[in-house]
Amino acid sequence: MDKAADSKPAATSLKKAARRQAPLDRISREHILAAVPTSSRFKGYKSCYVHELLLQAELVHCWRECWLTPAGKTILAPLPAGIMGDYGSNLRRFCLTLHA
Questions:
Q1: Where do runs of H (alpha helix) occur along the chain?
Q2: For 25-86, where are the E strands, in sequence order?
Q3: I want to staple 67 with a disulfide (CB 3.0 to 4.6 A). Which of 21, 25, 47, 75 is the partner?
Q4: For residues 76 and 64, what is the distance between their CA atoms, to the nearest angstrom?
Q5: What is this structure's pTM?
Q6: What is the radius of gyration, based on Cα positions, of the chain?
Q7: Given its phi and psi angles, is residue 51 left (phi above 0), alpha (psi -120 to 50 degrees) or beta?
Q8: Are 95 and 88 in contact (CB under 8 A)?
Q9: How many CA atoms lie within 13 A of 17 on its CB side?
């Protein structure tokens, strides 16, 4: 009986609720969802944070300078570090992560 009257479970539930809150500066968009039955009264909102992953493709057009030296040799500007073939380092890293 004494354990049931103890206020410790309420304190731990408050700590868990505080941990679940998302930082307000990182919210990228908001949606208001409604399912209104007829003759209902509005009683406010219930907040819910949803974490989502956004993957966005990017096609980068690289212009590589070509130079012809007086000796007749052609010099081509190198690609940025991490690019091998037609794929960037982030795309290759993501594919390897999916494979593993």
A1: 8-20, 89-99
A2: 66-68, 74-76
A3: 75
A4: 7
A5: 0.45
A6: 28
A7: beta
A8: no
A9: 7
* CA neighbor of 52 nearest in space, from 68, 79, 36, 31: 31
CA distances from 89 to 43, 58, 60, 86, 97 (A): 50, 12, 13, 10, 12
Cα dist from 65 to 21, 42, 68, 75, whole Å: 51, 64, 10, 8
| Cα–Cα–Cα angle for 24, 26, 28, rounded to 5 degrees | 105
CB contact set of 82 (below 8 Å; sequence gap of 6+): 88, 89
Taking the domains of the chain in order of start, what are their residue ranges? 8-99
